[in-house]
């Protein structure tokens, strides 16, 4: 899938968050986005997934104009095509770990317990499937969020600081998993990070500023 962002602008009232953001991410490509706190990185990722609205410009995925979809069509599109690792995890507290990871499959009407178990294994959480989120550490929760974003093999992977709570060894393992989905299955990976180690593995590193995005 090719993600194309064209002259995107986002404002809150009179305050511009960013303007004139143009970028393209090809299938199998890994683009890292860096920038100061508050510059709009999370907002930009949300716009890429159609989770937030923008004030000017276009977001398209393989020709699908995301801004032209109504809320329901956008949710359906997102379910099949997007894996999102939120900065604040958004793990559901009343579901156990395995149910949280299985959620994207469930929303697609699929069930694959073996794949859920494999994903938990891949992120180093084998055997913790029956735990509730409150019984996990911050870094373990982050890995639940990563397993959930990958379980349905999305073509577009959007990850907001996915290694922020992880020790260097676990962070490397998590990056390996995200990159495997990108390189082996041709997903497009957009990753917001403050980690130099994570950005160093990207094909391109782009700096977001109020007046645009550039290398
Ligand atoms: N509802 C809102 N109303 C007004 N301003 C908002 C609103 N939501 C976010 N903002 C502002 O939009 C800007 C972008 O926020 P965003 O969360 O995208 O930043 P970020 O680059 O992800 O920061 P961080 O690195 O701290 O996660 C911030 O300056 C924030 O204060
Ligand atoms: Mg953010």
UniProtKB/TrEMBL annotation:
It comes from the Bacteria. The keyword Transport applies. It holds the Pfam family ABC_tran. InterPro entries: AAA+_ATPase, ABC_transporter-like_ATP-bd, ABC_transporter-like_CS, ABC_transpr_LolD-like, MacB-like_ATP-bd, P-loop_NTPase. GO terms for molecular function: ATP binding; ATP hydrolysis activity; transmembrane transporter activity. Keywords: ATP-binding, Cell membrane, Membrane, Nucleotide-binding, Transport. Residues 3-215 form the ABC transporter domain. One of its GO terms (cellular component) is plasma membrane. SUPFAM superfamilies: P-loop containing nucleoside triphosphate hydrolases (SSF52540). CDD domains: ABC_MJ0796_LolCDE_FtsE. The keyword NAD does not apply. PANTHER family: ABC TRANSPORTER RELATED (PTHR24220:SF685), IMPORT ATP-BINDING PROTEIN (PTHR24220). This is ABC transporter ATP-binding protein. It comes from Variovorax guangxiensis.
């Amino acid at each position: 899938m090719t993600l194309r962002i064209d002259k995107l602008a986002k404002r809150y009232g009179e305050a511009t968050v960013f303007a004139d953001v143009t970028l393209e991410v090809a299938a199998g490509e890994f683009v890292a986005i860096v920038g100061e706190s508050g510059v709009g990185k999370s907002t930009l990722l949300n716009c890429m997934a159609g989770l937030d609205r923008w004030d000017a410009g276009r977001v398209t995925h393989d020709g699908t104009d995301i801004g032209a979809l109504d809320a329901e069509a956008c949710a359906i599109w997102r379910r099949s095509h997007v894996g999102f690792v939120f900065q604040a995890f958004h793990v559901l507290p009343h579901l156990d770990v395995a149910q949280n990871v299985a959620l994207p499959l469930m929303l697609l009407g699929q069930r694959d317990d073996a794949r859920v178990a494999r994903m938990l294994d891949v992120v180093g959480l084998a055997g913790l499937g029956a735990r509730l989120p409150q019984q996990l550490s911050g870094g373990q929760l982050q890995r639940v969020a990563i397993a959930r974003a990958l379980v349905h093999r999305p073509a577009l992977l959007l990850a907001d600081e996915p290694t922020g709570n992880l020790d260097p060894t676990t962070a490397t393992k998590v990056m390996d998993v995200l990159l495997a989905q990108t390189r082996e299955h041709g997903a497009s990976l957009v990753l917001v990070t403050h980690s130099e180690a994570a950005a160093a593995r990207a094909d391109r590193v782009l700096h977001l500023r109020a007046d645009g995005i550039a290398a």
